[in-house]
Every structure is written in C-alpha cells, then in structure tokens.
Amino acid sequence: MAVTKTHPPEFARKACAAGVLDLGENRVQEASEKYGDGWLGREFPHGKLHLIGHLQSNKAKRAAELFDSIDSVDSVELAEKLDLACSRLGKRPRVLLQVNTSGEIQKSGCQPGEALKIAEKLLTLKSLDISGLMAIGPLDGDELAIRRSFAELRKLSDLIASRLAPSSWGVLSMGMSDDYEWALLEGATEIRLGSALFGPRE
Question: Which pLDDT score, from 0 to 100, does residue 187 have?
C-alpha cells in the first residue's frame, strides 16, 4: 500500500500508474480534500482508498463515504457507527481491527486480550466486511521487539480464525517503511509504505 498522507494527489496518481492501486491516508479531512471529487475511481477503477489512521466516531459517516477500506477500527462502538453509516449508504467496505501489540500508550488499537471478543461482535455487523487485523510496530524498538509485536498479531489472527471461522479473513496489515522486512518475515499480507516510495515528508 502506498501511504500518501501529506503528499499531493500527483504522487498518488504516479503510484497508481506504476501499479500500486492501494492508497493509504491517515486523516479523513486530508483524504476528503485530496480524493473527495472521486478522481481515483474515475481514473483507476481498481484503485482502493484505505483509512489507516485513528478514526474519530464523529467522522464515521464521512469515512464511510470516502474509503473502500477502513483499517483502523479499534472498538465495537466505532464499528457500530460505521455499520449504520454504511447501511444507509448501501456500502460494505472492508474493515480491519487494529490491535495495539506494541504496548505503547500513545498508539491506538484495542488491547490484544480484547481482540477475540471484539472481533466476535464485529462479525455480527451486516454492512462491514471484517477481513483481518492491523498493527503498528514499536516506533523505537529493536528488531526483537518489533518482530515480537508482529508475531503476536499473527497469533491473534490465527486464534480468531480457529475460534470464529470468519467467512472473509486472513489480512495481516503490518509493517511500514522502517520495518516492513521484519513484518514480511512474520507473515504480513499487506505492508504500508510512505517514505520508502515517496521520500521523506516535509
């Protein structure tokens, strides 16, 4: 996934033209300004816009309108608001449950011990396609700590799959520009690359 936050739409167009059709944005407002006119779907019909940053519940409706995938759901309450908004829009976006496997208090995500219970409730919602898990590795961790956090997410995914047998499951979104190689070694199915593709942000 090409993370286009803080970068202009021209960067996103170049990524799509090169074959990277999954684009990630952190904020609803920035995504609305850059993608709100629908150019992505018109110019690249297979392009998908992902929300990868924390979603405030009061922006659930706009997120439902904008994004094809919401990869940062971290509570039942937020999921229920999204489900209601998507039901009214006649949409069924992909959703990932974000889990805080790094243990860093500044990070969003549910606690690992809550993931199974939350996933069970999310799977009852009719307008969301619950497809897997997302995590952000420790920002200041060494290789061992980072890989441990990714391995924990993989184990949680396996646990949910075995206990709940979701019909649509298996996405492991983990790894960014500084740690994606370790994420791949631990089983990532999606990595989120920003500076590795576009250079440092201003």
Answer: 97
What does the pLDDT look like over 111-170, one tens digit per residue? 999 999 999 999 999 999 999 999 999 988 799 999 999 999 999 999 999 999 999 999
Give the SS3 label for residue 42. Answer: helix
85 vs 102: CA distance, rounded Å: 31
179 phi, psi to nearest 5 deg: -140, 15
The gap from C-alpha 155 to its chain's centroid, in whole angstroms, comes to 18
The separation between CA 11 and the C-alpha centre of its own chain, rounded to angstroms, equals 20
Angstrom distance (rounded) from CA 55 to CA 99: 14
Nearest to 147 by CA among 135, 161, 131: 135
pTM over 0.90: yes
CB 51 within 8 A of CB 87: no
CATH class of 2-197: alpha beta
Name the token pair of 93.
Answer: 């976006």
**C-alpha span between 79 and 120 (Å, rounded):** 12
What pLDDT digit, counting tens, does each position of 16-66 carry?
999 999 999 999 999 999 999 999 999 999 999 999 999 999 999 999 999
Cα dihedral 147, 49, 117, 114 sign: positive
